[in-house]
Amino acid sequence: MTQYRVLPGPEHFLPPAAASMGVYLPNPGEAHINGVIATEEKAYEEAARQFLMAKVPTIFPGPLVLWAWNEKAAKKATAIRHLYNTLKECVQPGQSPMLIPMPDYRPKYPKINPEVEINPNHPNLTIWHNKIDCCMFVGVHCHQANLSLKIIRGGTSCYTIAMCAQAGHEDAMLSFRDASVEKIMKLAEWVRKLKGTVKPRLTSAKSGASN
Amino acid sequence: MADTHSVIGTQNKKGQTYTDTWKMMHEAPRTPSFFTGSEVIKEALRRASCDVMIAYPITPQSEAAALIGELFAEGYIGDYFRGESEFAVMSQCAGAAFGGARVFTTTAGPGTMRAMENFPMWAGARLPIQMIVTCRGINSPLSIQPDTLEIAYLLNTGMLVWHAETAQDFFDWILKGYMVSEEPDVHLPLALCCDGFFVTHTKDVVNLTPADMCLPPYDPYRSPVPCMDMECPPVRMMRDPFVMKSNYISYATHASWQQEIWAAIERSRKHTIKWLNGLIDTENTDADIMIVASGTAVSQGREAIRLLEDEGIRCGLVKVKTLRPWPEEEIREATKNAKHIFVPEFNVTGWLAKEIKATIPNHHRVHAGPHVCGGMTMPPEIIVQEIKTALGMKTLSLAGRGS
User: Fold this and answer.
1) What is the interface pTM, i.e. ipTM, of the complex?
2) Angle A137-A142-A148 (CA atoms, 0-180°, nearest 5)?
3) Predicted TM-score (pTM) of this structure
4) Which superfamily does A32-193 belong to?
5) Which of A109, B63, B108, B364 is the right S-S partner for B134, CB 3.0 to 4.6 Å?
6) What CATH number does residue B144 fall under?
7) Regions in chain B scoring below 50 on pLDDT
8) DSSP string computed for B194-221
9) Shortest CA distance to B42 belongs to which of B15, B18, B71?
């Protein structure tokens, strides 16, 4: 079993892919936390705790849920909005939840407006600009999500969560797999359940660019 | 949106039933059939629910490509045509796969080399195309005979690379290959290699799954990248000034992208182990002497082991099934007791021996040979001779009969 752990960075000039360090993806019914296989229940609790601890907890919905291209996508989008609203209700003064979309994958450097969108090719710009210290990817194609998650781990201290509809992401610090409306709603339930029990950090995210 | 599971049990236009692949490969009855390797490729494709096959003639894969044309005429393949060259074929395969099709092609030797630029592109674009490589000589003077040198060039393309020993491997692995390479966490092209002529043009008994069962269709909506979209990478990436810029961000993107390809190869381990029952097969791993080989060199190694046993020399065997993913831990474990490791190969450079030397501790144990190349056969006696010579035992020269 690998000793490598997927932790908040900034990790390295070029951090390795976690899969190349021996981290395996969870099987159906499982999740992973920091590269170690965990129960989904534990992952819900930890994801909710990380959201409530962050100064700027942020959800990054991708194209698979942003556009109502089928009924399932539309329902997921509604669930994500519910999670965001729950976060806003449950955080304490000084915490600022955000919902920043990843509408497509076109490289937009240097023209990106990090206030309104995130791009998988340079996600660190949005994270640095908004001082995001915890984020969740949802509805992003797996390749693009992994591309981003490694760059984020390399250059920022942001805690990353993946709510993946396929096999999960070992490059996130915490990953669910087979994401569904029910799983997103359950995470919202956990956020509500832990409301008031988690002490927020209320300090800016650490990163070379923002500090 | 397609749902693979929803079609299980329904029939395609040829009356074949879309079948759960695990059941089809492991539980369905098998019919022994006496076929050439080329005919086996055709029979596997008949059951593969393949959307597009693109062909170009080059020995020794031409027969398989032509036989698949017959399948198209019979209505088993969605589309089939001949490209203008191997380079064109592989580019056209990319186009079909970008569009969400299950794609198959075959090539060999200089054809593989001619098309080489496409293979890292396929991997980078996460296209789960399956390419049969019926290995042959690649250098001047021209040779159409078996030689596995071209595999060495495929190892760093980002493709999955498997090396079949027999026609039975070929039949099973073509079908199982799609199951591994189309997993969303893998989603990479597969180069399924065999030693040309030895496998493609010889007949063997192959146990076939029922012809009225076929794989579930490919579901492009599980792809880790969007289907054809000219505004998004990887397509957009190729014409966007972004990739031409010299700055940290463009480098970081490209670096992360490359890492993701190799991460996907690593992720394929889990699925490959499940479908191929391990990345290697082993026999007698407690022996002091081990033969580690891939392709038909495994068959020759088996025969050499039998000859050595007749002389009271015990020898073990490792059959390397996958070269990417590379079975590093498995080979370390299987060779941990060996004092001597022999690597017979059908190529001049000994690429497999180099991979093994880079993998195991005390690599001085590796004897890179015997080698044959350019189409020579590898009689098991020369493996026996190599082993006995290394052990300091007397052997007869096999080079000639003398005066």
Assistant:
1) 0.93
2) 60
3) 0.95
4) TPP-binding domain (3.40.50.1220)
5) B108
6) 3.40.50.970
7) 1-2
8) EETTTTTSSEEEEEEPPTTEEPPPP-GG
9) B71
